[in-house]
Amino acid sequence: MTQTIAPTPRIETRKGVLIIDSYSGPLLKLSEQLLQIGCEVATSFSLSDAFREIAESHPKVVLLNLKANPEESFEFLEKLREAGNTTPVVVISEGLSTETAIRVMKLGAYEYLPLDANPDKIISVVNHLVKDSKREKALGPISSGRERQDYGDYELIGNSPEIVEIAKLIGQVADTDASVLIQGESGTGKELIAKLLYQNGSRRDKPFLSVNSAAIPDTLLESELFGHEKGSFTGAYSRKLGKFEQCNGGTIFLDEIADMSLMTQSKILRVLQEQEFERVGGNHTIKVDVRIIAASNKSLVKSIKEGGFRVDLFYRLKVVSIYLPPLRERKEDIPLLIDYFLKIYCNECGREIDGVSPEAIKQLKAYPWPGNVRELENNVHTAVVMCKERTLLPEHFPVLSEKREAVKINLDEIENDYTRMFNDIITPNFDRIVNISNGHIYQHLMSAMEKALYSMALKHCGSNQVKASELLGVSRNTLRDRIKKFGLF
Ligand SMILES: Nc1ncnc2c1ncn2[C@@H]1O[C@H](COP(=O)(O)OP(=O)(O)OP(=O)(O)O)[C@@H](O)[C@H]1O
Ligand SMILES: [Mg+2]
């Protein structure tokens, strides 16, 4: 049944807002405010009426209360999309969830907003859409038969605004072929986002392959990605297909991309531009259709400045850019993540634990989580194993227990140790250092120390760059840069 609220009995062509809600639904309260900003408002209490209304009256915006009827609402969005209708639909729901965010955006919703006490955000989005008559939702291709959702195994837990925005973006871009660059500190969930993009995308029936540039030595990475011809280098006893060929039609996840050599970067750039490459040692050009998702926990902008990353590749990769904020900046996600991991590990370890004590939650929320979600997950796992009661207490979590203090004291001791060592070296030589200085002691000393350190680390690791960069705790591009700078061959 459709009921029209003043001032006009019917929506004129592309002028109004159509509200879809139940009889006493909360969205109806917005009518007054919308009228005040000059919008004509109509309401519809059934989705089938609304569908007809949209086709006949072409409202400019549709406000849909999801809570009224979630499953039917999803079908409604799908039907609109299949009918090629481009009217922007703003989906409103009481609480936001990442799963619904992905789902409604994938079904072509224009926005997904919370219904909270202050409806200003909803009013401003509607106002914007009503004024801007050209803005219509972009319709992606309707995928044949694969639209029915199988959400697979991966779940994005969290309800912080940052995570809900990321979920919306996943829903928006999963079905496209656009390359995606995911950046964020270690353990924030970059690989999980890559898998969610794949799981929700139209290529999910094709392979998903992952390559970690930091884990594979330079010399092997190129062959791992692009394959090689028989005899192309010592040990190449037969032809090998690379990851790009293996996942033709699918998705490749290039992890730790900042560690990739400039040569390999240029080959990736060519794949992005021309969808083609040659195997190592081969001259036959191979065409592929692969979607690229890349991730880095190091700043690519910094790598570009240091000359370790190609700027053109950076722009090609970040057609869509996702930044995962560290866990300490979205603390409201912590209790949800704890609950989630608690269920998983109780199940895995066959334990029955009711929950976490309020004191433990308080302390876990106050902890800065330098290792982000991965560190939290490991802590919950340990806590489940250690707990003999039915409630997890602070002492069950390694980061909250005294053992952590021991680690901290240890780290302080290491730092003091270094200071003592340098005191021993510099003190007897300090007068000489002052004598030969030309007012740049700091710069000369640091540079000399850096050169000595890189040279010793390389020697210690038998010139193995992967091991030396791990020993020093720097990226391989930084190591390569210093080798060149100091002439350490
Ligand atoms: N929002 C989240 N919801 C559920 N699980 C999460 C979330 N974020 C991260 N995780 C889990 O935390 C662990 C670490 O995540 P992931 O491996 O994706 O991090 P990463 O950013 O790739 O880390 P690194 O840079 O060290 O490779 C995984 O087990 C992942 O499933
Ligand atoms: Mg990762």
CATH architecture of the largest domain: 3-Layer(aba) Sandwich
Rg of Cα set = 28 Å
What fraction, in percent, of the residue positions are helical?
A: 40-55%
Question: Which regions are unreliable across 5 or more consecutive residues at pLDDT < 50?
Answer: 4-14, 134-151
CATH superfamily of the largest domain: P-loop containing nucleotide triphosphate hydrolases
Arithmetic mean of pLDDT: 86
Query: How many individual β-strands?
Result: 15
CATH domain class of the largest domain: Alpha Beta
The biggest beta sheet, please? 6 strands, mixed
- Give the CA-based shape: globular
- Proportion of residues in extended strands: 5-15%
**Remind me, CATH topology of the largest domain?**
Rossmann fold
Structural class: alpha/beta
Q: Major sheet: order of its strands?
A: 1-3-2-4-5-6
> How many angstroms does the end-to-end distance come to?
80 Å
Per DSSP, the total helix count is 19
How many domains? 4
- Oligomer type: single chain
Bound molecules: adenosine-5'-triphosphate, magnesium ion
How would you describe the overall organization of this protein?
The chain has 19 helices and 15 strands. By secondary structure, it is α/β, with parallel strands linked by helices. It folds into four domains: 2-131, Rossmann fold, CATH 3.40.50; 176-324, P-loop containing nucleotide triphosphate hydrolases (Rossmann fold, 3-Layer(aba) Sandwich), CATH 3.40.50.300; 327-400, Helicase, Ruva Protein, domain 3, CATH 1.10.8.60; 440-489, Homeodomain-like (Arc Repressor Mutant, subunit A), CATH 1.10.10.60. Strands 1-3-2-4-5-6 form a six-stranded mixed sheet, sandwiched between helices. Helix 4 (98-106) packs parallel to helix 6, helix 13 packs across helix 15 (372-386) and helix 18 (465-472) packs across helix 19. The termini are far apart. Residues 155-158, 184, 186-192, 297, 373-374, 377 line the site of adenosine-5'-triphosphate.
